[in-house]
């Protein structure tokens, strides 16, 4: 078999040293992590959007906040909008029952509800942004990891050619061309990560914008003093969360 026909990805991996194989493993790991984040957060986003639309439809068609409270108690708070509603109504009922017993409860019922809503929004923002930093890191660094692999491969190829004394074009082009595989792999890892990051960031921004608008309306309804159910709406996970549409 002609030596030229043996060139390719398999030959490049076979003749790579420990550094080259380590860089390749890093790129593979980056790719797996980025695709996992995109898949998990994408599916979660779609499910969250469906549940949010269902809750908002029920909320705006409910006859009273009591009906909303009953719905949350029955089916739980499974989306950012119902989470926010649950926390706001719980804060209103708690303040009405116990008053300002602690420093965090100081002020009027409206002040306490406002602080609770802000806390939930902040926590939901943090939850939505989990994993995005990793996607941004992969998108920014993967091309440079690939470029480093190419530079390392070209260096060793040229050293080997120099030691053999064969400096013809056919002897140089093959090994150098193989080294460029790493640059291509780096770009192949980075492009999906950047596209996934932009998509998720845009989707989160839309969700949070809708949640902020809903929070304003919710605060108005809760602060109007509309009667709430005597029972404080329980929280499913015990901690506030934040928005999604």
From TrEMBL:
It is a multi-pass membrane protein. The keyword Cell membrane applies. Residues 101-211 form the MotA/TolQ/ExbB proton channel domain. It is found in: Cell inner membrane; Membrane. Keywords: Cell inner membrane, Cell membrane, Membrane, Protein transport, Transmembrane, Transmembrane helix, Transport. InterPro entries: ExbB/TolQ_transport, MotA_ExbB_proton_chnl. The chain crosses the membrane at residues 23-47, 132-159, 179-200. It comes from the Bacteria. Involved in the TonB-dependent energy-dependent transport of various receptor-bound substrates. Protects ExbD from proteolytic degradation and functionally stabilizes TonB. The accessory proteins ExbB and ExbD seem to form a complex with TonB. PANTHER family: BIOPOLYMER TRANSPORT PROTEIN EXBB, PROTEIN TOLQ. Belongs to the exbB/tolQ family. This is Biopolymer transport protein ExbB. It comes from Piscinibacter gummiphilus.
């Amino acid at each position: 078999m002609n030596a030229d026909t043996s060139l390719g990805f398999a030959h490049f991996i076979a003749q790579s040293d420990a550094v080259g194989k380590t860089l390749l493993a890093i790129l593979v790991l980056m790719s797996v992590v980025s695709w996992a984040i995109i898949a998990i957060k994408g599916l979660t986003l779609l499910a969250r959007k469906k549940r949010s639309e269902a809750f908002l439809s029920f909320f705006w068609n409910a006859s009273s906040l009591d009906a909303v409270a009953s719905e949350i108690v029955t089916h739980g708070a499974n989306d950012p909008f119902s989470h926010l509603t649950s926390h706001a109504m719980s804060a209103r009922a708690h303040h009405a029952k116990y008053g300002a017993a602690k420093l965090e409860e100081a002020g009027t019922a409206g002040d306490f509800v406002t602080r609770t809503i802000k806390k939930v929004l902040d926590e939901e923002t943090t939850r939505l942004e989990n994993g995005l930093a990793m996607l941004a890191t992969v998108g920014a660094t993967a091309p440079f990891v690939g470029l480093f692999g190419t530079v390392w491969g070209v260096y060793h190829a040229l050293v080997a050619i120099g030691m053999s004394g064969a400096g013809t074009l056919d002897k140089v082009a093959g090994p150098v061309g193989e080294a460029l595989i790493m640059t291509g792999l780096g770009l192949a890892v980075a492009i999906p990560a950047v596209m996934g990051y932009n998509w998720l960031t845009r989707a989160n921004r839309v969700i949070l914008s809708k949640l902020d608008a809903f929070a304003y309306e919710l605060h108005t309804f809760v602060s109007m003093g509309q009667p709430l159910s005597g029972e404080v709406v329980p929280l499913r996970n015990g901690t506030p969360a934040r928005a999604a549409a």
